[in-house]
UniProtKB/TrEMBL annotation, chain A:
Catalyzed reactions per annotation: a quaternary ammonium(out) + ATP + H2O = a quaternary ammonium(in) + ADP + phosphate + H(+)
Oligomer status and interactors: The complex is composed of two ATP-binding proteins (OpuCA), two transmembrane proteins (OpuCB and OpuCD) and a solute-binding protein (OpuCC).
A Pfam cross-reference name: ABC_tran
CDD domains noted in UniProt: ABC_NrtD_SsuB_transporters
EC numbers on record: 7.6.2.9
Signal peptide feature range: none
Species for this entry: Aquibacillus halophilus
Name this polypeptide is given: Carnitine transport ATP-binding protein OpuCA
From TrEMBL, chain B:
Membrane topology type: Multi-pass membrane protein
Taxonomic lineage from the root: Bacteria, Bacillati, Bacillota, Bacilli, Bacillales
Family: Belongs to the binding-protein-dependent transport system permease family.
InterPro entries in alphabetical order: MetI-like, MetI-like_sf
Organism: Aquibacillus halophilus
Domain called ABC transmembrane type-1: residue spans: 55-235
The name this protein goes by in its record: ABC transporter permease subunit
Localization per record: Cell membrane
BP GO annotations: transmembrane transport
Keywords carried by this UniProt record: Cell membrane, Membrane, Transmembrane, Transmembrane helix, Transport
Amino acid sequence: MFISINQLNKQFLDKDKNPSIVLKDINLQIEKGEFVSILGPSGCGKSTLLSIVAGLTEATNGEILVDGKAINKPGKDRGMVFQEAALFPWINVLENVIFPLKKEMSKKEATKQARNYLKMVQLTNYLDHYPHELSGGMQQRVAIARALAMDPEILLMDEPFGALDEQTRTRLHGQLEDIWIQTKKTVLFVTHSISESIKLSDRIIVMGTRPGTVLTDIKVDLPRPRDEHKEEMLKIEEHIMSYLKKEIDKVVSEELNHEANL
Amino acid sequence: MKPIYKRLIFFALLLGIWELGGQIGLWAEIILPPPTKVFTSLYVGITDMTLIYDLIASFRRLIIGLVIALLIGTSIGVLIAKSKTADDTIGSMLLAFQSVPSIVWLPLAIMWFGLNEQAVIFVVILGGTFVMAINVRTGIKNVHPLYIKAAQTMGSSGIDLFIRVIFPASIPHLVTGSRLAWAFAWRALIAGELLTTGPGLGYTLSYASDFGDMSLVIGVMIIIGVIGSIVDQLIFQRVEKSVARRWGL
């Protein structure tokens, strides 16, 4: 297995020093080149899971192996795209994409490589623009180019299109799919949108909340582009919804109980 | 009406009342000389170059003092932002120093350096250093964690992370710190000069006061005010605005 997550647990201490379990016994095997979505309601720990894979957060116990090697800190083999573009506002688009390349190649090479990836996200006309001059969708495309520029094996995406409007999101879905087909990266894509996950992924990991666990692992075996298979997509959506419905009911009833106890 | 017209009319009225009040004898000339007299002494001071020399001398001290203050302030700021121990010790002392007007250091400075240039520069340095240090610390502490996380996923850490991400990300606070340091240093400079020897704007002010030359006193006050607001509005506020825009604040 390319990425292997074994018996992963994560707990935080809350304000009153009580441990609160965020992730419980997560086991996940991902193959090279797979596009895997992690889907779940907010609070299910899906972002925490991604952050642990990125090496930004430490697991309480359990291990993550990438290509057989254990992960304990961030590395260039795993590019990350956040919900906010997180571009550096003091440098322009091209320099942002060059950022991860600076130490390992000459300026000329880095520029060439950065331009290539900016071309892939169709932003060659904006090389010398500063982040504040770009729309949210464009910023996110720069962030994708920046993550790809260091040629990572794995692309981690934490609700990358969550803050964008519907039209922009749809367009970026298409671009991301093309990029994935072109670059053959392994993608781990966190989202709370069922339709987004069905549209993009080979596999959908559905997570439940409190504590965060894997509810089910669904293989999406539809030819791409998937917009031509609306009916099958709808069937999968209903299938996932049946899992998530219970989770959402659980959250709602917990909130109601909490309120009743106040 | 555009603000500029409102402003012009306001100042014209003010000058008119000021001039007229003196002319019809509402107050004695020594109490408040009329604007025409003030402008005459300003004109004389500028044409015979005395005020120009004062200005150059004052600016020399200011620039030396401010540059040193910004360098020391930034260093202290970085240190207390990065080291918890330094923050608990030096950091708490800074706040105490910052609440003392730097001019109160002048008696000590005169003992240490003598009644000269260095004593004034010392006071100017103290005026700017603490506020700069405090702002640099705030800037570094408030760097958006997302920038740091993003940089880490791109293989940046340690010194590299500091130089390429944390420091540039805190530039808006650095600019604010510099602006405040300039304002404090400018006030400290004039106060220091008032109490030491010339040439310098503050010295000329106290000299004119000793000779009862109130029109020159007001003239120097005007120069101090005009320069203060020009530097603040034309330089610092502009830089601050463009930085804030680019940094998306």
